[in-house]
Design brief:
419 residues, alpha/beta, 2 domains, LipidA_mod_glycosyltrf_83, membrane
């Protein structure tokens, strides 16, 4: 038990490093939604324009009511869910799979993000745990809640169906079908609205498909790579791909592929690849829920404890690179917002500047695409302008402006234009 306590204590400690770093755009959206909207407004006003179910936002609304809206508070549920996954893996398969998951660099990165990906990972792991423990009611509840948290859970749920078919567990196969019908039926009215709106956005926003993750070889290969080394990247790229490629090959070659549970790892990826030809979503972070399966298969494939220790040290090493070097942290809206003058107007793509809204809610933000520009000086944050296919520089130059100053922050730019 001392080893278990030590592993979880270290895992928690690592997750607390830099937890107060700046929120990035999607996290700021979460924060602003739960800060500014009522429970009803989240479900009726916000949800139809979003791409996710409401469960996570409602949970965060409840959480922030008691614990506030600081960066640490907003991210703490993800930390707790990740530790919960580790505990389920420990109870199910022992300490090694739990450690492989808890110290996986991608898990540590997203444990520090105020989004729904660790919540759905916990729920799907709970479903698998309930299956192994033959707890039908908990299994059905976990399946239903998982889809109500993240629609992408459907790929894992279908993978469960194939897995149950292979192991000939007919009872739980029927339970999976029934639970899926219930949860999809519950979500369908909202899902239909969101699907329609997403198609409109995809048509209007020039490069939106690239953000979502098109069905490409690059996006497909990034999944095992990021599952193995996390979100870090460095120059020169040749060295990065060499190191990352060798490490990824070693990790994935050690998985026990002959185990039927490998179906749970590969089926969701294959289904998502096919689906992405219709509607892009092949981004690696959407499949965090596969990492518990990877941890189990890795443990089963490694027979040598020294090799297990080596891989665990590698995971911790990559995690520390992210945690200790700020250049790998998220967009620095915190510093940018702090440097903005009092009572100023900020121009940009309004929906992409929620980071400013979170840190400086008193400031007025205007859309650079549609606003009448009359002032002699403009503060411009051109974040996502390229994604929207908006040539903001051409518009400003055509109106007689020229760039006077550019201030750079991590992954962000603040420009001053004058005429």
């Amino acid at each position: 038990m001392k080893k278990v306590i030590a592993i979880f204590a270290i895992a928690l400690s690592l997750r607390l490093i830099g937890l107060n770093q700046s929120l990035w755009l999607d996290e700021a959206v979460t924060a602003v939604v739960v800060r500014d909207l009522s429970w009803t407004q989240i479900m009726t006003n916000f949800a139809p324009q979003d791409f996710h179910p409401t469960s996570y936002y409602l949970l965060m609304k409840l959480w922030t009511t008691f614990f506030g809206l600081s960066e640490i508070s907003l991210r703490m549920p993800s930390i707790l869910f990740s530790l919960g996954v580790g505990w389920l893996l420990y109870r199910l398969k022992g300490l090694w799979p739990a450690a492989f998951f808890l110290f996986n660099p991608l898990v540590i990165y997203y444990s520090q993000e105020a989004r729904m990906y660790l919540m759905v990972t916990f729920l799907l792991t709970l479903a698998f745990y309930s299956l192994e423990r033959k707890n039908a009611w908990l299994y059905c509840l976990a399946i239903i809640l998982a889809f109500q948290t993240f629609y992408g859970a459907i790929f894992f749920i279908v993978g469960l169906m194939f897995y149950l078919l292979v192991i000939k567990n007919w009872r739980f196969l029927m339970l999976t079908f029934g639970s899926t019908l219930i949860t999809v039926g519950m979500a369908m009215p909202l899902l239909w609205q969101q699907w329609h709106n997403s198609q409109e956005i995809t048509a209007l926003v020039v490069n939106w498909k690239n953000v979502l993750g098109t069905a490409s070889l690059k996006n497909l290969l990034l999944i095992p790579l990021k599952f193995s080394i996390g979100r870090i990247s460095f120059e020169p790229k040749a060295a990065y791909y060499l190191i990352a490629g060798l490490w990824t090959t070693m990790v994935w070659s050690r998985l026990k592929w002959r185990d039927p549970k490998a179906i749970l790892l590969m089926t969701p990826l294959l289904l998502a690849l096919v689906f992405s030809f219709v509607s892009p979503l092949l981004s690696y972070f959407r499949f965090l829920y596969l990492l518990p399966v990877l941890a189990i298969l890795l443990n089963q494939g490694l027979k040598n404890n020294y090799l297990k220790i080596f891989i665990l040290i590698g995971f911790i090493g990559f995690s520390l690179v992210y945690l200790l070097f700020p250049q790998f942290h998220r967009e620095d809206w915190q510093s940018l917002a702090r440097d903005l003058p009092e009572k100023t107007l900020v121009y940009g793509i309004v929906s992409s500047l929620e980071g400013i809204n979170y840190y400086r809610p008193e400031l007025l933000i205007k859309d650079l695409r549609f606003s009448a520009l009359m002032a002699k000086q403009l503060l411009v944050v051109p974040y996502t302008a390229e994604i929207y296919g908006f040539d903001y520089q051409k518009r400003l130059i055509d109106l007689g402006y020229h760039q006077k100053r550019q201030q750079t922050y991590r992954q962000l730019v603040l420009e001053t234009w004058v005429r």
